[in-house]
Amino acid sequence: MAMATLDPEQSLFSAGSYFGTQPPPPTLDQDIASVRSFAHRQRDLGRKVVLVTSGGTTVPLELNVVRFLDNFSAGTRGATSAEYFLKAGYAVIFMHRQFSLQPFSRHYSHSTNPFLDFLEIEHNPDKSSNSSNIAVTPSKRDKLLEVLTTYKSVQQSGLLHTLTFVTVNDYLWLLRAVSQELSILGRSVLYYLAAAVSDFFLPRQKMSEHKIQSGKGSLLIEMDQVPKILKPLVDEWTPDGFIVSFKLETDPALLVPKAQAALERYGHHLVIGNNLHRRKYEVVFVSRDHQGSAASGVAITWLRISPAAVDARGRAKEIEEDIVAELAKRHQAWIDDLLQQSFE
Ligand code: PAZ
Question: The organism sits in which domain of life (predicted)?
Fold first, then answer.
């Protein structure tokens, strides 16, 4: 693909100028083909589909990349939510940062639950034999069996399709392409944009080819703003989908106003606000409908769980269970409303 050249003065990218000047990731065509066949299959089966984005994007500082900017997101929100969406009957495209948490395997992440700690060696009583067996630690068996059973059945049913990104550039290209492919599903597709996407990037044309050298004092890098792609997503790429974005803040006073500003600016369906330190126990749904507690046509609904809460099986409750239940309900109500209106 021929790339337009970048005006050296240019620092405010529109989606159009971004995609006209920044190169697509090498695996894009392959990813598009896989999403296309997944979307057609789900449409033929009459299933709802959710695109879950998850994990953080990197911003490389060099073309031969040694250094990059990153963020904190481990992909917990996305991986956990994907499991609950599957449980709610959705087919899931899980678009995540390479090596971040994934549905099912997240329960055994190398840092919080290393899988070797779940295994025991059973030595053969026959001392002359070298053979030993591996067994699952009895106290861990029930949960492992449950996770494994669901994982295998999801794999067999073809309900989960996984895509990976690393850089913010990969993410933007992939989101545009995937949303365009999913637009054939019309209202049946829900976008759950939980990835932590960088607001700033270094255009390829301004990047150093080789490793940035030290020895000349401090390093000054001026980054450009990532174009606001929610606008074309809503208006052009997938105009019929139900679109939910996330807003993360660290200052509690900014959370609701910023979520509300995003809703007004992009005109999508819902913003879920969360505070960095309370995100596992508290989120706020900001939408344009007339339910909820605020005046001015904006509904503000807090969803909270206690850090000590347990689920129906006595395990630590995950707030994503309630987020997804609420979203599945709202998505269906929205589809029903539009259907109703089309008959009136
Ligand atoms: O991945 P994680 O579970 O550690 O964090 C999830 C999250 C806070 C990144 C997500 O809920 C979110 O708010 N994403 C959007 C961030 C933003 O661009 O404002």
Answer: Eukaryota
Query: Cα–Cα distances in Å, from 288 out to 252, 282, 309?
Result: 21, 20, 30
- Per-residue pLDDT tens digits for 188-212: 999 999 999 999 999 999 999 999 9
Residue nearest to atom 1 of ligand 1 (CA): 75
pLDDT band with cut points at 50, 70 and 90 for residue 128: confident
Looking at the fold, whether 256 and 342 belong to one and the same domain comes out as yes
Cα 241 versus chain centre, distance: 16
Q: Compute, in angstroms, the gap from residue 248 CA to the centroid of ligand 1.
A: 6
Whole-number pLDDT of residue 289: 74
Identify the CATH number of the domain in which residue 182 sits.
Answer: 3.40.50.10300
- Distance (angstroms) between ligand 1 centre and the Cα of 251 equals 15
Contacts of 331 by beta carbon, 8 Å cutoff, 6+ apart: 48, 190, 242
Q: Is residue 137 part of a domain?
A: no
How far is ligand 1, taken at its centre, from the CA of residue 5, in Å? 33
Of the candidates 184, 229, 299, the one whose C-alpha atom is nearest the C-alpha of residue 53 is 229
pLDDT band at 292 (very low <50, low <70, confident <90, very high): very low
Residue nearest (by alpha carbon) to ligand 1 atom 13: 248
Q: Same domain, yes or no, for 169 and 89?
A: yes
Whether 227 and 322 map to the same domain: the answer is: no
Residue 6 lies in a domain: no
- Look at residue 27 and tell me if it is in a domain: yes
* In a domain? residue 303: yes
Mean pLDDT of the chain: 93
Q: Are residues 298 and 191 in the same domain?
A: no
Amino acid at 17: S
Under DSSP, the state recorded for 296 is: T
285 plus 236 within the same structural domain: no
Residue 58, judged by CB atoms within 10 A of its CB (0-12, 13-18, 19+), counts as buried
User: Which of helix, strand or coil describes residue 109?
Assistant: coil
Residues 79, 102: contact at Cβ < 8 Å? yes
Find the domain containing 224 and state its range. 11-104+157-211+220-240
